[in-house]
Write a structure and sequence with these properties.
Layout lengths: L14 E6 L2 E4 L4 E2 L3 H5 L8 E6 L5 E6 L4 E8 L5 E8 L5 H16 L4 H10 L3 H13 L13 H19 L9 H12 L19 H20 L25 H16 L4 H13 L3 H5 L6 E2 L4 E4 L7 E4 L2 H8 L23 H12 L6 H14 L4 H7 L5 H4 L7 H31 L1
Parallel strand pairs: 3-4
Antiparallel strand pairs: 1-2, 4-5, 5-6, 6-7, 8-9, 9-10
Keywords: DNA integration, DNA recombination, DNA-binding
Protein name: Integrase
Organism: Sphingobium xenophagum
Length: 450
């Protein structure tokens, strides 16, 4: 037998399977040159399936079942001596000549020592993007995937990842085989999210609607790139298939309050309290403006973290890890003035339960509505704190330290806080408090006049 035929079956038999385990009638050998005429002439068997094998290419045949469906196949013996059969395509979808060309390629792979059936089996078992995303969320929540500074990824970050996966990534590329993704695929996904193709209305509950847009699109690309990177690191992928994909440039938020707007906000805070707006919410807004803290750092602050005498707050965890952050006397006054609730450790307790107040954003919008100020978020207050510090002449490095962006040895030493940093925070906080008070005084004057 020629060397190239070593792993090919010869001869081939036309068999009819009777549908029971113990009965199989072997019929005469059925061979013919496969062409449209011979395939059209095939009639379905009464039971099981039947084959006709091509006389020109050994191992190339057509299979017909009881329903009349005709499928081109190849049959061969692999290196382990096992008979394998692989479907090439359905007659009518592809022609006999197209099937013959595909059969030559596949049987050539067999002659080279490959096993197309095993490759097809592996392909069926390869992870889709959706399956890879599910794996990532499970592993990350179990603490087996590390993020920044080799620490487990925060639950808040995973919640945002899960939202992007569910709303945008899975609907657009979830069914794709992860290994076969290309840069063009993920950039096209990013473009679809940017153009609102995954936009959805409000689904009920407290969540908002998914709108997409450039910012969300860039974050979706970042999420899938990170997932693929973790999969490569853990050995699920041999290579990162979309490394080098270009993320959309974000529109950096630079909105900050002017001096006049800070005064107007101070006036609106007094008015808001008179109108029944939550005093706790107003206090959170004031604290964020006086400290430059992130929204969650202010809202979820616990009393045990605050050291009024030392002039700092020791956060056990923040966006960039555990930190000690300087705080000025004006902000300390806001904290000390908050009523304590038995069993609730937070500076700003929720009205029910033992959790923190969580409606700072909604409260800020109401206050800004009274003030006629637009485009303000809790992060705007953080930018405003930095802006006032810059106007007072503090350097960019100092301001980064004030905001908790500096290196470990500047802001995260739990024994010592730099006195110069405390002074910078105090002067900035005092200046903002002065502007808020000036605004509140204007409201008082208006009230007296009225």
């Amino acid at each position: 037998m020629p060397r190239n035929d070593r792993f090919l079956l010869r001869p081939y038999y036309f068999s009819v399977f009777q549908g029971t385990r113990n009965k199989m009638e072997e019929a005469r050998m059925a061979q013919a040159k496969l062409n449209k005429r011979t395939v059209d002439a095939l009639n379905p068997p009464k039971a099981g399936q039947a084959f006709i094998w091509d006389t020109e290419i050994k191992g190339f045949g057509v299979r017909i079942g009881q329903t009349g469906t005709k499928t081109f196949v190849i049959q061969y013996m692999n290196k382990e001596g096992r008979i394998r059969r692989v479907k090439i395509g359905r007659f009518g979808v592809i022609t006999v000549d197209q099937a013959r060309d595909l059969a030559k390629i596949k049987l050539g792979e067999v002659a080279a020592g490959e096993d197309p059936a095993e490759a097809a089996r592996r392909a069926r078992k390869e992870m889709t993007v959706a399956e890879l995303c599910d794996w990532y969320l499970t592993e990350a929540r179990a603490g087996r995937i590390l993020g920044r500074k080799n620490r487990p990824i925060k639950e808040s970050s995973l919640a945002m990842d899960e939202s992007r996966i569910k709303t945008h990534i899975k609907p657009l590329i979830g069914k794709r085989i992860a290994r076969h993704l290309t840069i063009a695929d993920v950039e096209a996904m990013q473009d679809d999210v940017k153009n609102h193709k995954t936009q959805k209305g409000r689904s009920g509950g407290r969540g908002g609607k998914a709108t997409g847009g450039p910012g969300v699109a860039a974050r979706c690309l970042g999420t899938i790139q990170a997932i693929l990177g973790h999969a490569k690191h853990k050995g699920l992928l041999s290579e990162h298939p979309t490394k080098g994909a270009k993320k959309l440039a974000g529109n950096k938020k630079t909105r900050r309050l002017s001096v006049a707007e800070i005064e107007t906000l101070g006036k609106a805070m007094v008015y808001a309290e008179q109108q029944g707006v939550s005093p706790t919410g107003i206090s959170v807004i004031k604290l964020l403006l006086l400290t430059g803290y992130r929204r969650e750092e202010g809202q979820a602050m616990e009393r045990a973290w605050v050291n009024p005498m030392g002039g700092f707050v020791a956060f056990p965890d923040t966006k960039t890890g555990g930190q000690i952050r300087a705080i000025g006397p004006e902000a300390i006054k806001v904290i000390v003035a908050q009523p304590q609730v038995a069993g609730n450790p937070h500076v700003f307790p929720a009205t029910t339960g033992d959790g923190p107040f969580t409606a700072a954003s909604a409260c800020l919008q109401r206050i800004c509505g009274f003030a006629g100020i637009v485009g303000v978020t809790p992060h705007t207050l953080r930018h405003t704190f930095a802006s006032i510090a810059a106007e007072l002449g503090f350097s960019e490095l100092t301001i980064r330290a004030m905001l908790g962006h500096a290196s470990q040895n500047v802001t995260q030493d739990y024994i010592h806080v730099d006195e110069a940093l405390k002074l910078a925070v105090r002067r900035t906080s005092d200046e903002i408090a002065k502007l808020l008070a000036q605004g509140a005084a204007k409201l008082d004057r208006l009230r007296l006049v009225a």
